[in-house]
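Dear Dr. L.,

I hope this message finds you well. Following up on our conversation about the binding site, I have prepared a predicted three-dimensional model of the protein together with fe (ii) ion. For your records, I am including the exact sequence and ligand specification that went into the calculation, followed by the structure tokens. Please feel free to forward this to your student if that is useful.
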Amino acid sequence: MAGSIAEVNTSRIALEVFRLGWVETVLPYEIDLLSYAAKFGRPVASRRNGTLIDRLAPKPQEEARRNSMSAQRGLETFLFHSDAAYFRVPPRFVFLRLAEGASSTSDTLLLGTRELAFSERQLADLRRDIWVVRSGHSPFYAPVVGCNGGSNSWFLRYDPCCMTPALPGSNKSEAALQNAFAVAKPEAVAWAPEKVIIIDNWRALHAREAVRAEDRDRRLLERVLVVSNQEGRNE
Ligand SMILES: [Fe+2]
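The resulting structure of the complex is given below.
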């Protein structure tokens, strides 16, 4: 099967991801996730000096890395977020696969930006209100809706674990987000062996259900973050 990676029409799949916000597919375990993801662009480590592939296991708060979602939420339901929101420009794609031998009855939750019912005024707040983004030793300021060049290159950046309103009293974008989350209907994606979810990290937020007892030692996801070859393209 390894020879089939090159035959995969990655640009067609990428366009589907851009159109839908995420795509589910199947990648046999003979093919490593990093090689597959690299067909879509440039894999990047989630942390300085980190590996290009992360292995994500549920962690109680006391075992979690500082500033991580697990440090804040432990095994409870994760909050909706973008991955690597602490990058100046977050990577476009997130590839997730259930690791070989792992199992999970705790779903991944997905929420496309099209499902977030923002008014024009709220969108203006999301483009304007400034947040402090904690990024290693170099925090920076950024709004929730950012832009990476062309008119179709806007992206949603949100992770409450590394982002705080710069002026909490005058930040309307936080309320806009919370109101939108309160009425949104996220999609729950169940895990199965070899399943891959490819997320458009600019146009969809994701979360994790609370970890069920049977999954605590058995849930393990592989993750690769990818800067897209087709950064400006979507829709
Ligand atoms: Fe995540």
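In brief: DSSP finds five helices and 14 strands in the chain.

With kind regards,
A. P.
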